[in-house]
Amino acid sequence: MLNMNNINDKQKMMDYYRTSDMLNLLYFFPQLSPVRDLTIVESEKDYLTNKDYLNVFNQNRVDTLKGRTPILGIENSGKSNCFYDTLVKVKEKDPLGVLVLFNITSEPSERYERWAGISVGVDLGQDVIIDAVSKGFDGREVSKSICTHERYFIPWYDLRRISIGNFKEYQTFQINNEDYQMTRLERIKFLKSIGLNPEVFSKYIPEDYQAIPDFIWLSIIKNLLKQLEKNEDILTSYGFTNFAISGHTEGNNFAPWQMFDKSRYTLVKKR
Questions:
Q1: Which residue, 47, 23, 7, is CA-closest to 238?
Q2: Which region, left, alpha or beta, applies to residue 49 given φ > 0 means left and ψ of -120 to 50 means alpha?
Q3: How are strands ordered across the β-sheet holding 98-104?
Q4: What is the average pLDDT across 247-261?
Q5: pTM for this model (two decimals)
Q6: Residue 215: enclosing H or E segment and its boundaries?
Q7: Residue 169 CB neighbour total at 10 angstroms
Q8: Within 1-116, where are the H helices?
Q9: 105-144: per-residue pLDDT in tens?
Q10: Positive/negative CA dihedral, 50, 55, 57, 62
């Protein structure tokens, strides 16, 4: 077992795709990431040996070592009591695959309860492009380029003047209602495929398109966009000149889990 609070473990954890993305976000934007106590479970034996400790976790992902094919096709509700079953599925796909467990700072939501899924693509010193999906969706759609409901383009030197009052001036796309209906049906199909009850979740996904509310954009402006310029020098020194931060909202705030650089774009979009 590897845990981010152990300095020796932390370096080993950077050898994994998704885990390193999560650690990058915690390092560069600690106020933005809700992730705490990030832990890797390496084997079924590892899990059973530490089962009592691992029961404190409420979020999970799957991962594997960089250089190997990313693990596909294992989806769940995001929060689960079936961690061991997920780990068994991981090992069937990749003997070196691992289970990633963690907690978040807020009460975890269901995948259909979120206001938005958002990906913020950054070309340092040039521009910021935001792709987002709305209520009832999450970061899956934008990180995998499945669909976009709203898009914004912000030139780098406009970051200092951007506010909730002028944010909509930077919108370059909003989905029409007919196309939204198609994405809604696909979202419902996906949520059913991971075992969620459509009688429960369908009411959370509006039948007609509802724009992402201003309080979500205010969270992004305050907690991310205004920090980008401040962090420009340190990001450049670490080679993060092209990267994306993606995830979903928790409550009224953008609470992404991951930050990946340009070399990861293709791999992430294939997942």
A1: 23
A2: alpha
A3: 2-3, 35-41, 98-104, 59-63
A4: 92
A5: 0.88
A6: helix 214-220
A7: 10
A8: 7-13, 17-28, 44-49, 51-54, 83-93
A9: 988 889 999 999 999 999 999 999 999 999 999 999 998 8
A10: positive
